[in-house]
Design goal:
- By secondary structure, the chain is α+β, with helices and mostly antiparallel strands.
- It folds into two domains: about 80 residues, Glutaredoxin (3-Layer(aba) Sandwich); about 120 residues, Glutathione S-transferase Yfyf (Class Pi), Chain A, domain 2 (Up-down Bundle).
- It has nine helices and four strands, in the order E-H-E-H-E-E-H-H-H-H-H-H-H.
- The chain has a four-stranded mixed beta sheet.
- Strand 3 and strand 4 form a beta hairpin.
- The radius of gyration is 17 Å and the shape is globular.
- The protein starts with a strand and ends in a 17-residue tail after the last helix.
- The relative contact order is 0.15.
């Protein structure tokens, strides 16, 4: 399998299936394409976006579709929670972020290596931050038990889906309740997450119009 991704500094959608594959130890080839590349569209999927998973003759071009495919292809990896109720809620919270949270996504843009405390905040953003924290708290209270520190106890697709959100909270120094702050630290401690961030820090490939202070050398 090959996973086509964008810049690790910016591409929150690419991080999601990459983290699932990497944390689960599923072999794959990574193909990274810069968002600044003149031929970006040629490497992106039918929708002209990343990530894209290529498995033989099959091309899948949506992050949620990709992780669902991986869960079906590798049932032994237990990528969704095993219990039906937990699995249903895990899918629901992933779908909610996939289709929603426009204020958070637009105002707290994904930028893994910058530190921009307070930038982008407004009342609408805070409402969505509060909703994220409530989702995390509810999942852990209802389903995690003593099985582990992740949303449903053990690591699942839901954690990969909210991993980029945790990085937004770090980038913009968002003030969080203690339980949410601990969850952010849990995701940050994942070896796969640390590997992604380490490479993001070395890219030197920035959106100049957004970050004129970070011109490449």
């Amino acid at each position: 399998m090959k996973l086509v991704i964008g810049n690790k500094n910016y591409s929150s959608w690419s991080l999601r299936p990459w983290l699932v594959l990497s944390h689960a130890g599923i072999p794959f080839e990574e193909h990274k394409v810069s968002f600044n590349a003149a031929d970006f569209k040629a490497h992106a999927g039918p929708a002209g976006k990343v990530p894209v998973l290529i498995d033989g003759d099959l091309t899948i071009w949506d992050s949620l579709a990709i992780v669902e495919y991986l869960a079906e292809k590798f049932p032994d990896k237990h990528l969704w929670p095993a219990a039906p109720a937990a699995r249903a809620v895990a899918r629901a919270i992933c779908a909610e972020f996939h289709a929603g949270f426009p204020s958070l996504r637009n105002n707290l843009a994904s930028n893994m290596t910058a530190r921009l405390p307070g930038r982008g905040w407004n009342v609408a953003v805070q409402r969505e931050i509060d909703r994220v924290c409530a989702l995390w708290r509810d999942a852990r209270a209802r389903f995690a038990g003593d099985r582990g520190p992740f949303l449903f106890g053990e690591f699942s697709i839901a954690d990969a889906y909210y991993a980029p959100v945790t990085r937004r909270f770090v980038t913009y120094a968002v003030s969080l309740p203690d339980d949410a702050a601990r969850y952010v630290e849990t995701i940050a401690a994942l070896p796969a997450m640390q590997a992604w961030l380490a490479e993001a820090a070395t890219e030197n490939d920035f959106f100049v119009e957004d970050e004129p202070y970070r011109l490449p050398p």
